[in-house]
Design a protein that fits this description.
alpha+beta, 4-stranded antiparallel β-sheet, two-stranded antiparallel ribbon, about 65% helix, elongated
Length: about 300
């Protein structure tokens, strides 16, 4: 049980600090309470401090200390996960943080039930269910999340669009976004640099959408194409597109030997007779028109 909680604790810390690996010193400090709980469990066979058998399973005086140590790990996990989940803009990491919040809830419930059902392995059952749910969640993420950018992938996007156009609450806009001259970056600076550009674009899109009053749905459609699904009126959409273009322009610095630019094509779903194919085709056509305008401007 203690090993499972410690593993989940470090798993949550790695999610929260995805950009910086935990130092050896930090890992050691976090592990001290766990080592104390392990020592209590090891010596309990001789001291009966944690548990002993006398006409059945009985808990010793150190059980409260043992349980308190594990509870501190869970409390630290849930508090920090809640704090970061509120400001997290990466949908994949946000989902993982929410799962980390649910883990202590189920663990706390099993701890509570174990007080009344001492002769049953309630906590072990709860931990097993937690790990099963986490495994299913990770499996689902591998199917629906784009591994490079952390955005929703194409299949998840199509499912989302299908649901939106058949259950529209208000006007739904589709913005198709494409990186201009992306092939030039790949051919002249390498595919690794190209992948970095895609990550930067994805981050710029997430930052712009994070400040939008209705959280848009962002996905990588394929290659250097991204799609955003937005609820709102035309003025809202226009302001969001302005914010996106500004964020993209901010990516261009003197340190780069190239500029990152994008083209955007919009389509609007106004009724339930629209199809996914027609909406994406319309956005793609408008995207193509803007790309042609960009090329004509550069040739002048």
């Amino acid at each position: 049980m203690a090993e499972t909680i410690l593993s989940m604790f470090f798993y949550s810390e790695n999610i929260r600090n995805s950009k910086n690996n935990l130092s050896s010193k930090t890992i050691f400090l976090y592990s001290i309470p766990f080592l104390i709980s392990v020592m209590i469990a090891i010596f309990s066979t001789a001291t009966h401090s944690l548990f002993y058998f006398d006409n059945g399973y009985n808990r010793g005086p150190a059980y409260v200390i043992y349980l308190s140590i594990l509870s501190l790990y869970l409390l630290h996990l849930v508090v920090n996960s809640i704090i970061q989940a509120q400001s997290e803009i990466n949908p994949s990491r946000k989902q993982k943080l929410i799962q980390m919040i649910l883990f202590p809830c189920m663990s706390g419930l099993t701890f509570f039930l174990s007080v009344f059902f001492k002769n049953y392995p309630i906590i072990s059952i709860g931990m097993t269910l937690n790990l099963l749910l986490l495994h299913l969640s990770v499996l689902y993420e591998s199917i629906t999340i784009d591994p490079l950018t952390g955005l929703n992938n194409r299949q998840r996007l199509l499912d989302y669009i299908s649901d939106k156009i058949h259950n529209p609450i208000e006007d739904v806009y589709i913005a198709m976004i494409d990186a201009d001259n992306f092939k030039y970056i790949n051919d002249n600076f390498g595919h690794i640099e190209g992948d970095l550009v895609l990550k930067e674009i994805a981050h710029a899109l997430k930052n712009a959408c994070h400040n939008f009053k209705r959280r848009p749905y962002i996905a990588r459609y394929g290659g250097d194409e991204f799609i955003i699904i937005i609820d709102g009126n035309y003025n809202d959409i226009t302001n969001l597109m302005i914010a996106i273009r500004k964020n993209i322009q901010d990516l261009n610095t003197d340190k780069k030997d190239y500029n990152i630019n994008i083209s955007i094509g919009l389509s609007r779903c106004g009724n339930q007779n629209e199809t996914i194919t027609s909406l994406i085709h319309q956005a793609d056509q408008n995207l193509y028109k803007e790309k042609m305008l960009h090329k004509q401007f550069l040739q002048q």
